[in-house]
Amino acid sequence: MQSYLQPDVLDAAGVRVFDSWAATFGRTHTALELAPDGASYRMKTRFARFQNAPELLGLYHQVADVRTAEDLGLPTPELAGGKAETVVVPPSDTLRRYVAELADRAQAVQTGQVEPDEDNMLKVTGDGRRAALDLRLVGEDPDPAGGKIAAAARRIAAIYEAARDRTYRDARGQPAPRPGALQLVFCDVSTPAADGWNAYDELRRELARRGVPTDALRYMQDAKTHQAKASLFAACRDGQVAVLIGSTETMGVGTNVQARLVALHLDAPWRPADIEQRDGRGLRQGNQNPSIEIVRYVTEGSFDTYMWQTLERKAAFISQVSAGNLAEREIDDLGEQVLSFAEIKALATGDPRIMEKAGVDSDIDRLTRLERAHHDDQQRLRTLRATAQDRAAAALARADRIAVVAEQTTDTSGARFTMTVDGRRHTKRTDAGEHFRDVLAARLAATAPETTVEHPAVAQLAGLDIDAHTITVIENEVRVLVPDTEIDMRFVEDEWRTLDPAMLVQRLERRIQRLSDVAASVRADARAATDEATRADALLGKPWEHTDQLARLRRRQQELDGALMATDRSSTPLPLEPATPADRLRKRLDRSPAREPASGISV
Predict the structure, then answer these.
(1) Is residue 306, in this structure, part of any structural domain at all?
(2) Are residues 34 and 106 in the same domain?
(3) For 456, left (φ over 0), alpha (ψ -120 to 50), or beta?
(4) Is 253 among the domain residues?
(5) Rounded to an integer, what is the distance from CA 162 to the centroid of its chain?
(6) What's this model's pTM, rounded to 2 decimal places?
(7) How many domains would you assign to the chain?
(8) Alpha carbon distance 54, 52 (integer Å)
(9) In the predicted model, what is the mean pLDDT of residues 86-95?
(10) Distance, CA of 470 to chain centre
(11) Could you list the residue range(s) of the whole structural domain that residue 22 is in?
(12) Last residue of a domain, one of 501, 521, 541
């Protein structure tokens, strides 16, 4: 956007070329990742961190006028309870065993026991997300209690019953003939398929068992054309559809079905922007409900908790960047989230320290940036104090010089006027002005090209010498000035030759008579610079207020890292068969059903 909208600013900053921009505002990291074909791997270099964030945002906001929902204050529904509700689903024994198996796979990846095309952390994370939704997505036996899908079905059915008789208005503001609210269910991990088990059809079956009519439940993926989408959206707005299920990609931007939307049901997506798009389907103008529910389903002991925690942290950064009030100088890239081996092992063992570690790491990153900003501010204050002191001293010296000259002036008002030009005395302003103009015009004509000639004391007015310069460096011009004052007047040649002579003299007189005021103004500038230096001096050496907090967090981080590394080094075999990681991988692949790649990360 900057290259399109402000190339001149990038040129002036020396970052017009992308490599220069990237070197100034970014740090890169090269790692192995899944190729777009889904079957091979490649080395990919991408941004890992953005630096000099305040300067970058300062440039960007010269052309970007960002207004958030909080800024606009549009009439939108309230969020029930003031925040999204989290429904925690207890894990089954099978899920606990599978997460432990994921930890074992992660150990095999970390120690190089498998090739990257056999297994890698991206696959481990993807399988962990699928298992958190339903174990059948990874070829395991289902949760006897129904798991997350059953929990969602219970809540969706309850909301359906509570809102089935709620009335709404049509597009003309009249009562609509058909009652009933609308619920959206976002599911990115599984997609509807003609063959094989999938979460969409399972949710439909669970809802039908609980009394939700199947003809009131639709899949977003069934609307494959613009016309079909328009018809589906119209059915949602007039009450024909009670539950619409889809992915963030298919049911995000452009889904205008908010009129009756009373609840959103969510799994964990990959990006904070996905959450914003999902929530924005209901928290927007045109929704006739006074409040809506946003329900998030989290399977305890799975990847869900970590995903949501990370997403919320990233969303906070994005909000600060959008609003332009980011205090940190560096921000992490908001890319895909892949869990590390230690994190997966902690989840597998049910160790809550991983959640604490995520929060501690985030707080340390934030406070470290603030600490760096504090040290930068201290250096800036030292520079500011020195320059302010220099400005104050220079201003006082200027004020003294101007005051001395002001005391030497004589009164030239009315009949007291007298002015000497090139040795000739004049008592009329017009005569003095014409002579002054003609003398300097002649000297300008005699000035060699691309030179500046000084003409000291070419005239005397009000007891002061009037100097002049004739300049031909760029264009022919005349410069009139009074030594040791702020009087400095410039005229190009054409302007000088046509200038009203009496007006020229009167302008000089007015400037000379105001010298006392100029001296007072410069003294005020000196006092302001002195005050600025005093304020900077008061802040210099001030200790950073979060030093103790950062030290405590770093000690706790070391404790957590040591504990997690000890867990990592413990080679207690997990009760899984077969014994080797490669055999376990082959067994997992053999028993996993063929499935259509879902949106988000897919393998």
Answers:
(1) yes
(2) no
(3) beta
(4) yes
(5) 40
(6) 0.56
(7) 3
(8) 6
(9) 88
(10) 54
(11) 1-65
(12) 521
